[in-house]
Amino acid sequence: MEYSKLVAVTGLPGLFELINSKTDGAIVRSLDDKTSRFISSRIHNFSQLESIEIYTVRENVNLVEVLNAMAKSTEKLPDEKDAGAVKKYFQKVYPDMDFERVYASDMKKMVKWLEVLKKNNVEIKLSESLEEEQIPVEESAKEEIKAEVEKSPKKKTTRKKKAE
Fold this sequence. Notes:
Helix content is 34%, strand content 18%. By secondary structure, it is α+β, with helices and mostly antiparallel strands. The protein folds into two domains: 3-49; 52-119, Arc Repressor Mutant, subunit A (Orthogonal Bundle), CATH 1.10.10.1650. Strand 3 (25-30) and strand 4 form a beta hairpin. The strands form two sheets. A five-stranded antiparallel sheet has the order 4-3-2-1-5, with no helix packed on it. The chain has a two-stranded antiparallel sheet with strand order 6-7.
């Protein structure tokens, strides 16, 4: 099972593996009980785990970075029902998180999701195409683009004056 195929569905608990998508929804398999079913996109929204970002005090980071920090931590996962314990856990494991903008419910979801991912032996990593998109453009490439823009001929624009 690949991390890139995992989705969260609004209104439904847990994580799902995307099996097939259709114009009016998707066929998904629950990671909890392994049942497959059709979910209508008219009622539910789908969020790929790869596309989820977390607010930090600097720039937003991908969920993968936070989940990996949680997995590598020696701290014991807190009970997801105890909001205070969950917040203290994240203050130790990922102190850069912006705790004013990341809700307690979102932190609880991350704890639940990590447990599900571990239980299903899912390797938590971005697909190669997303990793390439996140590589910053080198300064030399920026200069080349700037030079190309300056070389391109500029179109002259003329305004027609209204006759009064």
